[in-house]
Amino acid sequence: MDNLPEDLPADLNLMEMRPKIIGARVQRVEDPRLLTGTGQYTADIKLPNMAHLAFRRSEMAHATIDNIDVSAALAVPGVIAVYTAEDFYGQITPPRAESKTEGFHSTPILPLADGKVRHVGEVVVAVVAESRYIAEDAAEHIEIDFTPLPVIADPREAVKNEVLLHDDAGTNVLVDRTFGRGEVDDAFSQAAHIVGGDFRTTRKTASPIEARAAVCEWDRGRRTLTLWSATQVPGVIRDTIGDVFGLSGSHVRVIAPDVGGGFGCKTCLYPEEMVACAAAIKLGQPVKWVSDRMEDLVGTNQAFDEYVHAELAVDAEGHILGLRADVVGDSGAYSIYPWTAALEPVQVISFLPGPYRMPAYAARTRAVATPKTPLGAYRGIGRPTATFVMERLVDLAARAAGIDPVEMRRRNLVQPHEFPYRTGSGLVWDRVGFIESLDAVTDSIGYDDLRAEQLKMREAGRKVGLGVVCYAELGGIGSRIAVAPGMPINTGVETANIRIDATGAITANFGTASNGQGLETTLAQVVAEELGCRVEDVEIRHGDTSLMAHGSGSYASRSAVLAGGAATVSAREVRANVLKVAAMIMEVAESDIDMVGSRIYVPGTDREMTLKQVAHTYYQEMGRLPKEVREEVPLESTRSFDPYLGTAACASHAALVEVDPVTWGVKILKYAAAEDCGRIINPDVADGQMRGGIAQGVGVALLEEIIHDEDGQILTASLVDYVLPSAVEVPIMDVMHVESENPDNGTGFRGLGEGGIIGAPAAIANAIADALDIDIREIPITPEKLFRQTGN
Amino acid sequence: MIPKVPITVTVNGRTYEREVPPRLHLADFLREDLHLTGTHVGCEHGICGACTILLNGDSVRSCLTFAVQANGAEITTVEGLGTPDDLSPLQQAFREHHALQCGFCTPGMLMSTIDLMQKGTPATEEAVRGALSGNLCRCTGYENIVRAVLAAMEAAGPEGKAAEGTENEAGANG
Fold it and tell me: CB neighbours of A746 closer than 8 A, spacing ≥ 6?
């Protein structure tokens, strides 16, 4: 019973009112297995005769490969095979993510570096052995002769194209895009105050605690490839692997078992997945690769990494007149599959205008190839940087105009009567709680009192600052809007298949895949409520391409909205058919019966059937129902859901910080966030997404930075050097949910998964700037940077 | 080849005799040789804490411990706590407080919590955060973990600490 909402009476027959399952604090279905070590992650998979894969990776950022001598590696006892790029000629067609984005240049995703290396950590040689230990030993015995090529590590230099990373692209600028509307020059010429300058978000990595992993099995007899991968996008991988190996989709099955976090970095096809498949096919034995943390820090796609020049023009009363921005994004060595190099830097300028009225906007963004680990997706994509920059600008403008920062935001936020509002970049905000979120957060922290208290603390010599920020995002995007501009796949649809089998059991299959956020629970809640059963009656299956014709996965705050939408329409159809069949069996009108908790009954009478009885009659009792019923009224439904556009989601965050004047360490004294994610499926899960996102935002703001030296060498290849927030650094958070007006997208759900990380860096940066009366232009804000900046 | 070394270890109440290479780390031994895959490996350099187990009652990083070092030792892994049908009080507290999302760090978090409870860590937020600072979680933001641990500490009381420990000894479903 512990899966039921707490307020649910035990005897459902007594209840005419339908229990609310959507919105209830249902304990997670996943937890018992994950708490007892009985979950199954990719690294836990063992197959008979399984071999182990390890890689020799490049130590050079940019170099030609003159010779590879694998003889010593092959001689290591237990080594089964050693592969270099040419071993996969004819077997692998390297995928290329093309894009319709203007001025886009694609790059291939290579299984192994071929002829030259383009970043430290790029896979060069693959070793398959009887154990991982042996494979790693052998990899050390490989001799590679490199001739170094010039390294241009700074993307602002790389735009000059003096050294090309991809000769066939003919340029290092893989994307060059502009957005704009209104007369920006006029806006700036009329401005009372112009603020801005150069901002920087350094390179991050998502670093889920489960690093990537892949196990591949090739069934020679059936010519069928099965790939278990720690991925967020099994559907995308299946579709791509089919093309890469020339196999039909029915002969490729990709399974994402329990996935230990992803946060975006597991949304791409990776070289290691291709190599594991290629090796399994060549050898006819299963091959397993499990990334260690060092490989993860050099080989998993990284994040953010932009130089932003931005200026904001406001009038004397602080009203925003216009915004200009020029973004250079460091794309690393390859344009990722399927999202392309456009994904991150284009979203910076898409979201830069934020939730504010913006009469005039002009922005340019460039995605620039450099010899570093490819830049990929990480929670928030573009928006953490956009929000950091915009919210710094708003604070700077407030200060210039002599207006309180919260008042400044109130004056400029899109007002309830102005929705739908088209932003300067062309995004459309539907009615969402911009003002409501700001009110909730300022009420929660007691803004005015806190300002007074802050003054007292500062008079007492304490360096205490308060930062309040707002942002807007677009989640649950349908087919009208590309997740990444011009990319090669459709991300705007998800499909559910719900069926009641001959035993009366309910199975709901989905094309999406969880990366740990609890989809088995939230989707079961949606199905249970819409179908009229209990949460524990629903078996949710996902993360397996054999379930559905099409599906992509979890990313872009889409699964609750899209899979939840598909669950809704599919469950409603199954429910209608169940009632139709039950009415026929019970010889009553369909309109006279109801189904709650898997019991079909005639309200006000003692007449009822269980779903199991209905299913038994339907499937097993010959002659009981007309043949047309079995032929035309299936107890099953497959329905897709496409919200077409996206739905806005928003939040306000507030941070109170104190800077230690001796160590320059930053302590977060208070943190509050209020968001509008529409109708909430499970408050615990929604809260958990926010808290986890904010914690990652603390890392972005204060701790995390992938550092390369000028030779492109990574200096942060361990978790000692790349510092993730621990329980000590992450503050207590007051997380609030406001529901302004539910979107008209079929379910009322808005995307939530990414929100926390979008607001937190900006809130913390503004708070530190306030504490020290300085400008903050770069995140992370480390003690060393503060020490240098303040000249102490 | 360096010869294998015979070891005898008791894991979750069951005694195993195996021959292992000297360089095999304990996490791999548990996962590969004993098929106890509940212990997860997150970094292999002692930072993330996902591989934390109890070795003779103390929490240790099984990725930084060689299997041969465990010769003669009593080990408790997450498999030695409750079962999916019968969660231990601590596991139940984690579930009730939504103290896990992806679950990858969770086994290590549970084992570190047992250790901190057995060592008499004060039931305060600050002390719990400090005691768990060697276990990284990327999903939850820690707050719900801290709540779950404090709730488990409160429910256990001074005698309850022993109860969770006793259960470890008794749990032999490895």
Answer: A565, A568, A569, A641, A643
